[in-house]
Each structure stands twice: as structure tokens, then as C-alpha cells.
Design brief:
The strands form 5 sheets. Strands 14-15-22-21-17-18 form a 6-stranded mixed beta sheet, with no helix packed on it. The chain is globular, with a radius of gyration of 22 Å. The protein has helices spanning 3-8, 24-32, 83-87, 132-139, 171-176, 227-230; strands at residues 68-71, 79-82, 92-99, 122-131, 147-158, 161-170, 180-185, 188-189, 199-201, 214-220, 234-235, 244-245, 252-255, 260-261, 268-271, 275-282, 289-295, 300-302, 304-306, 315-321, 326-336, 359-366. It folds into 2 domains: 3-245, Alpha-Beta Complex (Sulfite Oxidase, Chain A, domain 2), CATH 3.90.420.10; 252-366, Immunoglobulin-like (Sandwich), CATH 2.60.40. Helix content is 10%, strand content 35%. By secondary structure, the chain is mainly beta.
């Protein structure tokens, strides 16, 4: 049996991992996918080139002038739209924070063999498009429809299964959430890596739901069986567990590390004296952030909290810190309007999804 056959047709299991040691495959994934730079968290809207990226397969080559979005199988009034057609529809711009479901995977032990995210897989953009619900209504989902599927043009193998990336939402979810069919990001047409020419944005959910390079929308009278919905993006206690679906983002916060970094370790050096520490906090399903706390190893203090600018984007927090010389481990933790607070330790998940444990920043404070 050939090696290629093993990879593409006879997949058995991903390799075991060792804490702190990353395979060549994982390093290759890290070189293809980028996260936000924590020192840029001060931006209300993440500059487009700094927004996190996760690309499962290849960025497809799409002729923007010929591309059409098909409302196809399962609709009683199927139709298609060009990008220009979509731009001519009623437009809406929403600031939305997106986070990868695998953000923080490297903090779990043992971790899953996959994209080795630290904590940087997040960003907030202003997404422009047209509300999806009226377009679904126009296509007239057939009797018995329970879900709507969204399929992109990107295609590849995962765990030996060839498929195009796809996800689904129920009719109730589409009706209750502000799902957008998007063609622009931060006032400019979508870039190829961010899903050009069309994608959906599902506010409040982890990024896997916001299908990029969107080609086909279908109405289903039975639960969607696409690989990226039934075989991954599920919380599991072990690899044999059927699990529960990953959906809305868990409450989380990050800080901009104070001081200046060591090039390799990223540990921070700071002169003694007053300094403002700040960062961002967010949660899923439109829940508000009601409190952010800061800890310098000497106890938790409540930070100042500025309101977010929209229902689905992050809030800014800040606090004045006046450390004496010494070594510190800084933490921040957020609480949302549902009463959920970030845990101090990661919750175990076999695939490394949904880790919202508190951030830790090592800081050495020097005598000024």
C-alpha cells in the first residue's frame, strides 16, 4: 500500500503529539495560517491584513465576473445571483468579532495534531453585505425543510474524506441571528484569503460557520451530513465520542502585553512605575461583557470597561498598574451577561476546541 493511498483513502488516525514539540506538518499549517498581533488589540476594527486566517484547503481561483451564487436543490423557487446583483440589494454593515474554534489549542495537554493555535486566532472587522433571511425566503424552501446548507468552492481531503467545505444552519437560526451574505470587509471588496467574492458571516459563532468562497445554498429536509459538521467541529471527550456541535463563542478576553518583548520567548520587560494595561473581551450569541478582571499574581482587580460599538463585536478594557521590580504573571478574565466567566484552566476537548482559559503573560519589571 502506497503512502499516498494511506493519506487519501485509508486514513486511520492523526499522529500523537508531544507538548512543546511541533511536527513539520503543524509548522507548515502555522506558516499558512496567521493570527492577530496582540500588540494591535487597541484597534477597534482589526486592520484587514491583521485579521486571523484559517484556510482548510487552497484559496480557490474564482472569476469574479462569472461567479454566481446558486440557491438550488430543495427550493421551490431556485435562482442565482451575481456579485453585482448582491451589491444592488439592501446593504448592511456589522462590526463582528470572529474567533477560530481551535484558538488556544496548544495550551491543552495532550493537544490535538492540527493547526497549532496559541491565542491569536481572533479579529474584528466591519462586514458589509445583505441580510440572508430574505434571500432564503425568496427561494421558498420546500415543505419539510429544516436546515439550509452553505457550500464553498474550496475542496480537499480531511481524514481521508474528499469534500468541499460546507456547513448548515437551521431555519430558526437564520431567522433569529443577523446572518449576512457578505461581499466587503472594512469597506473594501473581500480579499481572496477572506472568501472573495462571497461568504456568509454568522455573528456570535466561531468562525467555521462563516463559510468562505460561497457557491451553493441548498434547502434540506434532513440534518446536514457534511464532513465539517458531523466529523469535526464537535466537542468530544475522546476521539470515539460523537460529541456535541461547536456553535457560539465562549466568553474570552486578551490583553496587549505591556513593555517590550524578548525576540524568541516573547516574555516582557518593563520599567517599574505606572503603566496602563488594556485589551479586549467578547462572547457569543450577542451576549454583553459585564466585567473584566486583571491579576498581577497579587489578586484580582476589576478593570474599566468601555462598551462595545455593536451587538457582536468586542469591548475594550483597561486598568492602571503600578508594579514594583520583580517577576509577574499577568492574567485577565471576562464575565458576560449570561453569568459565564472564563476558567483559570483549559477545559479538555479532544480536538482542542473552545479553549477560553485565561491568558497568561510573563513580565519582568526592572528597577527604573
Amino acid at each position: 500500500m502506497s503512502y499516498l493511498s494511506d493519506i487519501f483513502k485509508n486514513f486511520s488516525a492523526r499522529p500523537d503529539t508531544e507538548d512543546g514539540v511541533f511536527s513539520e506538518d503543524e509548522v507548515r499549517l502555522a506558516n499558512r495560517n496567521s493570527g492577530i498581533l496582540l500588540e494591535t488589540l487597541d484597534h477597534d476594527i482589526t486592520p484587514t491584513g491583521l485579521h486571523y486566517l484559517l484556510i482548510h484547503f487552497d484559496v480557490p481561483r474564482i472569476d469574479l465576473t462569472a461567479h454566481r451564487l446558486e440557491f438550488g436543490r430543495g427550493f421551490d423557487a431556485p435562482y442565482s445571483l451575481s456579485v453585482d446583483d448582491i451589491r444592488s440589494l439592501p446593504q448592511q454593515t456589522l462590526p463582528v468579532t470572529l474567533e477560530c474554534a481551535g484558538n488556544g489549542r496548544t495550551s491543552l495537554s495532550p493537544r490535538a495534531h492540527s493547526m497549532p493555535w496559541g491565542m491569536e486566532a481572533v479579529g474584528t472587522s466591519e462586514w458589509t453585505g445583505t441580510p440572508l433571511a430574505p434571500l432564503i425566503e425568496r427561494a421558498q424552501p420546500g415543505a419539510g425543510t429544516i436546515e439550509i446548507s452553505f457550500t464553498g468552492t474550496d475542496r480537499g481531503f480531511d481524514k481521508g474524506v474528499e469534500h468541499a467545505f460546507g456547513r448548515s444552519l437551521t431555519l430558526e437560526q437564520i431567522a433569529s441571528m443577523d446572518v449576512l451574505l457578505v461581499h466587503a470587509m472594512n469597506g473594501q471588496p473581500l480579499l481572496p484569503q477572506h472568501g472573495a467574492p462571497l461568504r456568509i458571516i454568522v455573528p456570535g459563532w466561531y468562525g467555521m460557520a462563516s463559510v468562505k468562497w460561497l457557491k451553493t445554498i441548498e434547502a434540506l429536509d434532513s440534518p446536514y451530513q457534511g464532513f465539517q459538521q458531523v466529523s469535526t467541529y464537535r466537542y468530544r471527550d475522546n476521539k470515539n465520542d460523537s460529541g456535541t456541535p461547536v456553535t457560539s463563542m465562549r466568553v474570552k478576553s486578551l490583553m496587549t502585553p505591556p513593555g517590550i518583548p524578548d525576540w524568541i520567548t516573547r516574555q516582557r520587560h518593563l520599567q517599574a512605575g505606572p503603566v496602563t494595561v488594556s485589551g479586549r473581551a467578547w462572547s457569543g450569541d450577542g451576549a454583553d461583557i459585564v466585567k473584566v478582571e486583571f491579576n498581577d499574581s497579587l489578586g484580582w482587580q476589576v478593570a474599566r470597561l468601555a462598551p462595545s460599538k455593536g451587538q457582536y463585536d468586542w469591548a475594550k478594557w483597561s486598568i492602571e498598574w503600578n508594579p514594583a521590580p520583580g517577576e509577574y504573571v499577568l492574567n485577565c478574565r471576562a464575565t458576560d451577561s449570561n453569568g459565564d466567566t472564563q476558567p483559570l484552566e483549559p477545559r479538555w476537548d479532544a480536538s482542542g476546541f473552545g479553549n477560553n482559559a485565561v491568558q497568561q503573560v510573563d513580565v519582568f519589571v526592572d528597577d527604573a
